[in-house]
Each structure stands twice: as C-alpha cells, then as structure tokens.
Amino acid sequence: MTSREPASEHVCGKPSASRRSKLTPEREQEFYDAVLDQLRECGYEAVTMEGVAAATRCSKSTLYRQWKTKPQFVAAALRANRCVRFAGIDTGSVAGDLREAARSAAAWSERDTMLVQALSHAVQQDEDLQRALREALVEPEVQAIDAIVRRGVERGELPADHPSTEFVAAQLFGVLRVRPMLEGKNADAEYLTRFVDAVLLPGLGLVAPGPGPADGAAAGGAAD
Hints:
Blueprint (H helix, E strand, L loop, with lengths): L24 H18 L6 H8 L3 H7 L3 H11 L13 H26 L2 H4 L1 H29 L12 H16 L5 H15 L12 H5 L4
C-alpha cells in the first residue's frame, strides 16, 4: 500500500486532501461516504469492496489499489470524516455550554451511535480500526467537553479539584450511546438537556438555569 498523509481535521462534510492517489478529493469522499453509509445500514460484516464499488460506480480494482483491506478502507473513511462537533460553543457559563452541547449532540447522535454499534466487534479485532474510531468519534467529543469544564474552572465557576469534572464527558456520551439500548429511543435534545440539568449540573455543584426562550417548550414537555 502506498503511503498517505494523515487526513487533517476538518469541518463535517468537507473532504480532506490526499496526495497518495490520483483520485480527486471529491471522488475519494464519495467512497468514504459510501462505506460509512453501508456500515450504518448493514453492519461491519456486511460491508464489502464489491458493495462500495457498486454504490459508487467504480471497479473493485480502484478501491483495492487505494486500500488493500476492508479495515484499512473503513479506518481511512473514519479519519477523513473526523469532525469538531462542538466548535463555537461558548455561552459564558458551564451550564449554558453543556446544554448547548446536549442539543448539538442530539442532532448527530443517531448516525454516530449506529457507527459505534456497527464497529463494536470489529474494533476488538483490529487496533488501527479502534484507533480510527477513537480519533473520529471519541477524542474530539471528549476534548470539547473537557474544554467546557476547563473554561468553567478558569472563570471560577468550578473548583479545579472538583471530583466530578473528570467524569462529565463519560456521563454525557455514555447516556448518548446507551439510551437506544436501554429504551429503544435515541437521545434527543429534550432528553439530553434534562440529563444535563438533572445529573451533570448538580454533580458539579451548579444550579440548572431556568428555561430561556428556546428552552420553554422542551422544559415544559412531558418526560419520556
């Protein structure tokens, strides 16, 4: 397999440049989108080079020239689609930031949860695939939540040694991923916002803010 520069972090949906092949970045992104769509719809075991080739109207040999194996192909697709999920969130308070992060997370939770579930077994068998999944869907999220907490410490909202701060990301993304299993429902914005107010903020010693204009309907709605 020829060498390739690592895909750089980018805004969701925009392809990253590659110098290792003669494919255009747009065509390469078509392949990545196709393999990720098949992962979500069919699961890892059902994904084949033949299926991706058919979906993108190319020859199998084109795919095999770029990515020698399915794990390499899937790992490359994950890395090329790494996103900064919470870019720009800074409301001026930990409570505001976490509530905004909850709403943002709800918008993409279904698609990402489907990917995590599809790859749950495969990543135990392939270390590079496991690293790619962490780089694409885990580390950017955790770093963003850690940044929210860090800003809270810098503003004096939270003590630097508060024992709950290290568990904020684990709690938020844990409930995001596990609700479909426990209740058969995705973690929507209303559910995640209630979780922030009922669990995360009290755990940090903060009082949940009252609903603003954008929150009134959600706060007044019936619980699931």
